Amino acid sequence: MIRVLLADDQRLVRAGFRSILADEDDIDVVGEASDGEQAVAAARELRPDVLLMDIRMPGVDGLEAARRIAADPALADVRVVILTTFDLDDYIYGALRAGATGFLVKDTEPEELIQAVRVAARGDALISPSITRRLIAEFAGRVKQPEPHPRLNALTEREREVMELVAGGLTNDEIAARLVLSPATAKTHVSRIMTKLGARDRSQVVVLAYESGMVSPGWLG
């Protein structure tokens, strides 16, 4: 059962998401919050698998809440998915950098919301990879000077290849096909990369790849 926490300052939005998710046999909405401070407190109390959180809320916003959750080792298994009204939001890159798994546009289709929750719970891929890749590239392009990350030196040549493809928004299956590997081997490489880099999930691997200069916006087309 996937445990979900909803955080949004609009009650109707929370009610709408709860209604969509409540019909799924493998999803349980365990709580709600109306601002970031409540969301962090509820995450610590309820330990959800996925936190669907609006980025713009009064008081503590979603960005700061995501940062607090990412900084708490006890909440390492909580996957934060940021909700936004626009698919290009200045806050989103910061949220991913702070440890959010990905983002969803609020008017997403019900089927996409359900799938996104399942994907986030697996920690298996970014939410809406093509959109997220475009957004990360947009804001990573503003990084003035790439900063080499010392942990990158711990990666093997193959792991660097895999990391570059992760940064391109490819799934494990797509990476396997590109490098002529089995999907299981591709997944193992990704897991080892996250461990070596101390990354919570794939989104942080992507951000690091851009910020370190390993890849540049639009490199994969």
Order of helices and strands: EHEHEHEHEHHHHHH
User: What structural class should be given to the helix and strand makeup?
Assistant: alpha/beta
Strands, total number: 5
- Ends apart, CA distance between termini: 37 Å
**Global shape:** globular
Sheet with most strands: strand arrangement: 2-1-3-4-5
Unreliable spans are: none
What is the mean pLDDT?
85
Largest sheet: 5 strands, parallel
- The portion of residues assigned to helices is 40-55%
**What portion of residues belong to β-strands?**
5-15%
**Radius of gyration over all CA atoms, rounded:** 17 Å
Count of DSSP-assigned helices:
10
GO molecular function: DNA binding
Modified residues (4-aspartylphosphate): 54
Domain Response regulatory: 3-121
Organism: Yinghuangia soli
Brief overview:
The chain is of the alpha/beta class and 221 residues long. It has 10 helices and 5 strands.
Task: Please outline the helices and strands.
Elements: E1 2-7, H1 11-22, E2 27-33, H2 36-46, E3 50-54, H3 62-71, E4 79-84, H4 90-98, E5 102-105, H5 110-122, H6 129-140, H7 157-167, H8 172-179, H9 183-197, H10 202-211
Helix pairs in contact: 2-3, 3-4, 4-10, 6-10, 7-9, 7-10, 8-9
3D structure, described in words:
With 221 residues, the protein is of the alpha/beta class. It has helices at residues 11-22, 36-46, 62-71, 90-98, 110-122, 129-140, 157-167, 172-179, 183-197, 202-211, and strands at 2-7, 27-33, 50-54, 79-84, 102-105. Helix 4 packs across helix 10 (202-211). The longest helix is centred in the C-terminal third of the chain and has 15 residues, at 183-197. The chain is globular. The termini are far apart.
